[in-house]
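Weekly structure sync, notes
Attendees: PL, DS, HV (note-taker this week)

Item 1: Glyceraldehyde 3-phosphate phosphatase
DS walked through the input record. Source organism listed as Methanofervidicoccus abyssi. Sequence as pasted into the shared doc:
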Amino acid sequence: MTIKGVLFDLDDTLYDSTTFVDRARKEAIKMMIDAGLNATEEEAYNILQRIIKQKGSNYGHHFDDLVKAIEGQYNPKIVTMGIITYHNVKFALLRPYPDTIKTLIELKKMRLKLGVVTDGITVKQWEKLIRLGIADFFDEVVTSEEYGLGKPNIEFYRYALKKMNLKGEEVVYVGDRMDNDIIPASKVGMHTIRILRGKYKDMKGKCKYEVKSLREVVDIVKKLIEEGV
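Item 1 (cont.): predicted structure, written out as tokens:
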């Protein structure tokens, strides 16, 4: 058995999700306050963070709930200002990590199948990949919305393998979280590589292969192929 494919997590693995999303939210709050939101930036940010924690990052009405929590009622002008600013800043800052494209090119040269396994709404995840300029590298993009269950459910990972038409031992999985990425991918037989960056880089747990750069992934994959694992 040899390595035939590599699956990647998306957020904080192929691009800096944490930094650009947080900055976009803060800029949105500034503009919402300019539009009449009655709160300080710190107050509004803390309330927004609580809403995101309660409803999840894929919830579609964070700014609606923020305005209602502060103003006691819906204000379409303030909400719209937040949405427009958030998306303008987000897309202005959306870039792959410097090592992402070079790594994907090298893996493609090795004639490996490449895929993405990600929680989120399918259209939004595809939008990220297209705006990042990396969509065409991937043979499959598997989302939690498509399957109906997300990480860390191991059936979600089995579904990804099925779409790739590969067995677990034929695939290397690259992600940033022990709980949502490394542990469930290992359980379905994949070789796992944990990338130590983003907000989960200090999460407890140990993976056999841990890297700080995606460029190191290429060397590990080559090593596994040479060993014929």
